[in-house]
């Protein structure tokens, strides 16, 4: 006879799970004991929300469902933001929560809320396990559902008496690879005809193109010779160093890259997911759009494709390129705009004033991060600047959230990246507001002996909302706060702390942190006055280039 908790852990091992992030409660104790005797590492966190962010990022970076665990009631409800983060961001994850005994409870309604119902709007599936013998089947179904397109979170509730229940051994369910069909030949034919007829084609690479299983994206760009831009979460899907890169749509309109978007007559949208803040706004007089994706497009007022190519991205794009390569005389029609767009984006990126400007910050971070280095952004005003100015060369090396856009995820996401890739430089970049939402996870990073640099941008306010308050000509009110001494705060957790006091000290301080190893917290004051100058005053109606071919 075996316990339900032993079956659960065996099923997780069968799925290839090597770590679980979480904060257990008494309802999970049988599962904890089963984990102690297993090959799975229990990564204890200091808050359930952080555990969910870590598991979601594990799914984002590997394509395999990350796993997190909590107790019932308040612990389980702390998972909800992480569940929404994975749900909107298409990150495969399995959330395991505990519950009081369901067969014979002696505690009435103490701590009991309907977690299964609470999770249903935030997950692909939410269910309670009511029989130990069903655990292997339910786990297999949960992982299959979490990882199939469109990926996302799945929630399972395991009551403590079901975890303790003894049953006959149950065989594990076989795992079969999930193969996604390629696009239909008629869809490829229609799309190819539209692209061949275009006078000024443009490729857009979106969030789904960044899936770990996606391949052939850069090859499609190379074979067609069509210039491309990316959404915020599509950065790195084709190298930003290529001569066909036009920029990233950090805003929905009137950004520099929109000079090309506004002139194109056809956008090939590869992997676009409408959960992202729109990279452009479709209208009745705008360009035609060909949607290439794993799943059909979600039709919105701002996104209604004229043709769709649905199937496994890599093989489908290869077949589409076969129909286009060498047949596109207008492929480079928008390239004359490239130099001007990228030149304006790079303006003042070496400016020497202090506190550091966003442009200089991005420039210096790029200088210390190798092409494979991973930057995990929290959510704040700086995200727009990194989306616009930070060149990416490899997918998922700039982890930002342009879907839920939640604060508090930057540090936990970086912790997961540092665990998965111990030989790569990993940096969390957080505003002082977002950092304090999960700053307690510094202890987790130190305990795990990770190599991690945490850069805190200090402006003493919730900067993005404060900026929008100013743009709306409202009084500066209700968004400022004071901070702890971040150097001493880091040291209290056993990390190392440093403060940047001049513009010339930023790069050496970060280099010293990386070469020193361990967990380092670096704080630097930031000057957001450039927001008004560049993101409001400078972004008037898009200009037209006289060098552009009609």
Structural key phrases:
20 strands; Rossmann fold; 3 domains; disordered C terminus; 6-stranded parallel beta sheet; 22 helices
The count of helical stretches stands at: 22
CATH architecture of the largest domain: 3-Layer(aba) Sandwich
What's the oligomerization state? single chain
**Alpha-beta classification:** alpha/beta
- Radius of gyration (Å): 24 Å
CATH topology (fold) name of the largest domain: Rossmann fold
State the helical fraction: 25-40%
Average the pLDDT over all residues and give the rounded result.
94
Count every beta strand, where a strand is a DSSP E run of 2 or more residues: 20
By CATH reckoning, the class of the largest domain would read Alpha Beta
Write the CATH homologous superfamily of the largest domain: Thiamin diphosphate (ThDP)-binding fold, Pyr/PP domains
Our count of domains comes out at: 3
How much of the residues is beta strand, in percent? 15-25%
Inertia-based shape:
globular
How far apart the termini lie comes to 76 Å
Structure, described:
With 550 residues, the chain is of the alpha/beta class. The chain folds into three domains: 166 residues, Thiamin diphosphate (ThDP)-binding fold, Pyr/PP domains (Rossmann fold); 152 residues, Rossmann fold, CATH 3.40.50.1220; 190 residues, Rossmann fold (3-Layer(aba) Sandwich). Helix content is 35%, strand content 17%. The chain contains 22 helices and 20 strands. The strands form four sheets. Strands 3-2-4-5-7-6 form a six-stranded parallel β-sheet, sandwiched between helices. Helix 10 links the parallel strand 9 and strand 10. Helix 14 packs across helix 15. The longest helix is centred in the N-terminal third of the chain and has 15 residues. It is globular and about 70 Å long. The C terminus is likely disordered.
């Amino acid at each position: 006879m075996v316990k339900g908790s032993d079956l659960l852990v065996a099923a997780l091992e069968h799925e290839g799970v090597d770590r679980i992030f979480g904060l257990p409660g008494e309802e999970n104790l049988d599962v904890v004991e089963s984990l102690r005797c297993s090959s799975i590492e229990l990564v204890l966190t200091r808050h359930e929300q952080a555990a969910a962010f870590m598991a979601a990022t594990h799914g984002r970076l590997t394509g395999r469902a990350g796993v997190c665990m909590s107790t019932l009631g308040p612990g389980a409800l702390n998972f909800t933001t992480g569940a929404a983060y994975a749900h909107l961001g298409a990150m495969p994850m399995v959330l395991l929560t505990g519950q009081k005994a369901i067969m014979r409870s002696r505690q009435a309604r103490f701590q009991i809320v309907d977690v299964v119902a609470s999770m249903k709007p935030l997950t692909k599936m939410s269910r309670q396990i009511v029989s130990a013998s069903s655990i292997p089947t339910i786990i297999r179904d949960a992982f299959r559902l979490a990882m199939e397109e469109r990926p996302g979170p799945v929630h399972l509730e395991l009551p403590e008496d079901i975890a303790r229940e003894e049953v006959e051994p149950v065989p594990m369910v076989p795992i079969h690879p999930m193969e996604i069909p390629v696009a239909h030949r008629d869809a490829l034919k229609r799309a190819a005809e539209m692209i061949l007829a275009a006078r000024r084609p443009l490729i857009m690479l979106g969030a789904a193109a960044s899936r770990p299983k996606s391949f052939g994206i850069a090859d499609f760009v190379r074979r067609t010779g069509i210039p491309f831009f990316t959404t915020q979460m599509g950065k790195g899907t084709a190298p930003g160093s290529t001569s066909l890169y036009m920029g990233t749509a950090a805003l929905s309109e009137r950004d520099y890259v929109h000079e090309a978007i506004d002139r194109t007559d056809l956008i090939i949208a590869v992997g676009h997911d409408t959960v992202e803040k729109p990279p452009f706004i479709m209208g009745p007089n705008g360009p035609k759009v060909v949607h290439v994706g794993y799943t059909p497009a979600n039709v919105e007022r701002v996104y209604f494709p004229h043709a769709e190519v649905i199937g496994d991205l890599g093989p489908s794009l290869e077949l589409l390129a076969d129909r286009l390569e060498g047949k596109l005389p207008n492929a480079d029609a928008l390239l004359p705009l490239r130099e001007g767009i990228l030149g304006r984006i790079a303006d003042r990126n070496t400016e020497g004033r202090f506190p550091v400007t966003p442009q200089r910050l991005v420039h210096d971070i790029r200088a210390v991060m190798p092409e494979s280095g991973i930057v995990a952004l929290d959510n704040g005003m700086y995200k727009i600047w990194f989306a616009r100015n930070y060149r990416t060369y490899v997918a998922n090396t700039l982890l930002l959230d342009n879907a839920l856009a939640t604060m508090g995820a930057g540090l936990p996401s970086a912790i997961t990246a540092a665990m998965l890739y111990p030989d790569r430089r990993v940096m969390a970049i957080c505003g002082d507001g977002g950092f304090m939402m999960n700053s307690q996870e510094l202890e987790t990073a130190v305990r795990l002996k990770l190599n991690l640099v945490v850069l805190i941008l200090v402006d003493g306010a919730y900067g993005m909302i404060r900026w929008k308050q100013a743009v709306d000509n409202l009084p500066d009110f209700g968004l400022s706060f004071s901070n702890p001494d971040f150097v001493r705060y880091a040291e209290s957790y056993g990390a190392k702390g440093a403060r940047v006091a001049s513009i010339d000290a930023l790069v050496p301080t970060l280099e010293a942190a990386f070469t020193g190893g361990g967990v380092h917290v670096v704080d630097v004051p930031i000057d957001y006055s450039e927001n008004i100058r560049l993101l409001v005053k400078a972004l008037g109606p898009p200009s037209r280039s006289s060098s552009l071919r009609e």
